[in-house]
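Lay summary

Proteins are chains of building blocks that fold into shapes. Our project writes down both the chain and a compact code for its shape. Here are two examples, one after the other.
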Amino acid sequence: MNKLAAIILTYNESDNIMDCIESARFADLIVIFDSFSADDTVEKARSAGAKVIQHPFENYAAQRNAALAAVQAWANWVLFVDADERVTPELAKEARQAIESPEIVGWRIPRHNYIFGKLTRATGWYPDYQTRLLKVGAAHYDPERKVHEVVILAGAEGVLKEHLIHYNYRDVAQFLQKQRKYAAYDAGILYHQGIHPKLRNYILQPGRHFWWRFVTLKGYRDGLHGLRLSLLMSWYELRKYTILRKLWQKSP
């Protein structure tokens, strides 16, 4: 029979860790892959019976690859669950059935995202498929994609029907903090690709991004919530090109 490990990457996740572990009890092994948390995440995880492995954080792709390598002696399938995610009983049952399929080495899972406490059904946050159920030895993360990781599979991929629950962005402050980081990261990619910002980028790119979120991805279905998210994401598209301009100004 296949052995399934649930892997939870953590850093200072005291508020989330116990509920996340409880949702993953269906797995044969729960592994907390921790980046040397400064709070009581590790103590809580151990008290809940999870196996704790601490590993220095380089980037998300490297951390997930290290976690895959760490569990290969104990499990032949893994389910990556973020600390702010929850596995529903329905997903747990479906995942158990899915790993018995001999043809598939990775499964995509849809997510329900709660942003500012509201279930977001459009605006680019649904169905938000994540390839998280992986056969050990047949999957790894692209080391070049250090954020918004990409899984590379040595075989076929399937799609599950049941959802992960993602409590994404507690409030606007957390949203803005993360988007600042993502904007800087994306600007750095453009810079290393040799792309120079043009005047039209500061107008057209934010406008296109807003249209894409609110109209193409049907953000209007989320009402004022979708409008706010579309405007915020448009603003960070502008910020990305502003950061890119500053990078070129500092370039020797």
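And here is the second example, written the same way.
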Amino acid sequence: MFFTRLRKHAKWMFVFLALVFAVGFVGFGIGANQNASLGDLFRGDAGTSGNLSVGDARDKLQENPKSAEAKRDLATALQEDGQTNEAITVLSQYVEQSPKDEDALRELAGLHLARANALAQDAQIVQLRASYLTFGSTFSVPLDLGDGATLGTDPIDEAISTQASQEVSAAYGRAQASYQSAEATYEKLAAVAPRDPNVQLELAQAAQQSGNVAKAITAYERFLVLAPDDPSASIVKQQIAQLKAAQAPATSG
């Protein structure tokens, strides 16, 4: 049946993301700050004076395709224009040329995380739609033909269930990939700013969201070393304990 497959392939991710949103973003209060900064960035509040339009920035990059500055300007213009996906692509190219630019790395990580959150919300909508489409086939009782025999699954219902399951898995896969990109970028940022406890906290949450529990624990513990008296320390300790407890069954098995 559809929901049996869904539990095996997608439902765990739905529960995991819900937990992350509840604990990570509410518990630490990081989500609100990141959303605010990204919103300001998209509105151009972070210094719009002298910024180029997307068209002008493209022209500048065409004139000098290898210019890191031109790529940075285009990435900024794309963000202000709300073209997040292309902004990520261009900013990633810039970071390859300027791997120690802490501001650019933080910005890129935030963009990956914002896109991942949006994709996760889309995935939840897809899952709800799948539940609606397969409601009848999921809860209907097979026709009893006697002597323990039942009528086989309706091929139409089976086809709908299979397609819905594939759509749910694909939607969560896209969100997961974006969370992994955010984690990878935060790792680069942590290498550039190894003494910044906030970077470790951001890395820990990105790793947790991507499903990399071991990396999340390591980054949370690093945060505690760098900022043992931080107001979030007690929450971080609780989070570490919960993650280690969740790891225990898999380790013992």
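What can we say about the second shape? The chain has eleven helices and two strands.
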